[in-house]
Design a protein that fits this description.
By secondary structure, this protein is an alpha+beta fold. The protein contains 12 helices and 11 strands. The protein has 2 domains: about 100 residues, LysM domain (Membrane-bound Lytic Murein Transglycosylase D, Chain A), CATH 3.10.350; about 130 residues, Orthogonal Bundle (Arc Repressor Mutant, subunit A). The strands form 5 sheets. A 3-stranded antiparallel beta sheet has the order 9-11-10, with helices on one face. A two-stranded antiparallel ribbon has the order 1-2. Strands 3-4 form a two-stranded antiparallel ribbon.
Length: about 270
């Protein structure tokens, strides 16, 4: 009789466990950080402290750094060309939330890396309509089509070329790329313009030296978006360069704008 009771209790336990996790569509392991609490973790993963507590079978609210907790979140494998901004935007969350969920304190990620992605809030999910595969067109007349990945690439170029320059110069750098897309003299997409080679050399130095892989600053993202909406401080330029450049061919071209240390020519 005792054996039957123990067997029945075990079956009930398995059934309850199955019922508990049947309601959880996806999950991942989160490593508790210093100063974490169940409340903070619940906020990070858009759930409640009680849910985190229940999902992990905790009998108290005490947790400790280094402890791995089951959280209701999805996992994402980093692909070539990804950035934290691009991934966060794809899932409708902030870069800060993505960093915190993964214990990342800088902007460096690498292909093949597994990231925990917190669920977006309902409001954020409703407004997230773009991803790396979705092409979008600005509503402003005269602008071009672009993908979210190309926006990120353009912003990374702006960061690499003009991070320490005035905001209008950053918009100008983005505008030059857009002007090239519109021109018959250059390729017809942002990515193909930025990665274009001429006589075996890349058109943009950051592509050559790898700085294009640096994460974009928020200012550069804003500048890229402004240029995509039609703003052009470069006044139609197809080239830009630092005023310390000694290239006579560049200096011989018609000057359109001079902003900070950046020279814009046609």
């Amino acid at each position: 009789m005792k054996i039957l009771k123990r067997t029945a209790a075990l079956l009930v336990g398995v059934l309850l466990s199955t019922m508990l996790f049947a309601n959880v569509a996806y999950g991942a392991g989160y490593t508790v950080a210093n100063n974490d609490s169940l409340y903070k973790i619940g906020q990070l993963f858009n759930t409640s402290a009680n849910t985190v507590k229940t999902d992990n079978g905790l009998t108290s609210s005490v947790i400790y750094p280094g402890q791995v907790l089951y959280v209701r979140a999805s996992e994402y494998t980093v692909k070539s060309g990804d950035s934290l901004y691009l991934i966060a935007n794809r899932y409708g969350i902030t870069v800060e939330a993505l960093k915190r969920a993964n214990g990342i304190w800088d902007n460096m990620i690498c292909p093949g890396q597994e990231l925990i992605v917190p669920a977006a809030s309902t409001a954020a999910a409703k407004t997230t309509t773009l991803n790396t595969e979705t092409a979008v067109t600005s509503a402003v007349s005269g602008t071009i089509s672009y993908t979210q990945a190309e926006l990120d690439l353009l912003a990374r170029l702006v960061t690499a070329e003009a991070e320490n320059q005035p905001y209008s110069a950053q918009v100008g750098v983005a505008a030059v790329v857009i002007n090239r897309v519109k021109s018959d003299l250059f390729p017809d997409t942002i990515s193909s313009v930025i990665y274009q080679k001429s006589d075996g050399y890349y058109q943009f130095t950051p592509v050559e030296n790898g700085w294009i892989n640096k994460p974009a600053t928020q200012t550069a993202i804003n500048a890229a978006l402004e240029a995509l909406k039609g703003s052009d401080p470069s006044k139609g330029s197809l080239y830009y360069f630092d005023d310390s450049a000694t290239n006579k061919w560049l200096w011989s071209k018609p000057l359109k704008a001079y902003i900070g240390d950046m020279v814009f020519v046609y």
